[in-house]
Amino acid sequence: MAELKLRRLQELNARLKEDLERRRIPVSEASNDLISFTEKEPKDYMVPSKWGTVDKRDDPYAPQQSNGCCVVM
């Protein structure tokens, strides 16, 4: 029982040490990185406030219109 408790404490101690060694950055820097990443990436149609509305024919998420024919699969 005591050995199990000791092993768990040692594992917790190792995880906490790894946490201390992890690189940390301020929130302002992380926010700026995120903003610059989203500006460089291609347009995201799911964020119309940033990129504007999407034309229906260019929208990959719009439901496809059928021509009235039956489709057999």
From TrEMBL:
Residue ranges crossing the lipid bilayer per the database entry: none
Matches recorded under Pfam families: G-gamma
GO process terms (BP): G protein-coupled receptor signaling pathway; pheromone-dependent signal transduction involved in conjugation with cellular fusion
Gene3D superfamilies: Transducin (heterotrimeric G protein), gamma chain
Membrane protein topology class: Peripheral membrane protein
SMART domains xref list: G_gamma
InterPro entries: G-protein_gamma-like_dom, GGL_sf, Ste18_fungal
Localization, UniProt: Membrane
Record bears the keyword Membrane: yes
Source superkingdom: Eukaryota
Domain G protein gamma stretches: 1-73
Family classification: Belongs to the G protein gamma family.
Assembly notes: G proteins are composed of 3 units, alpha, beta and gamma.
Name by which UniProt lists this protein: Guanine nucleotide-binding protein subunit gamma
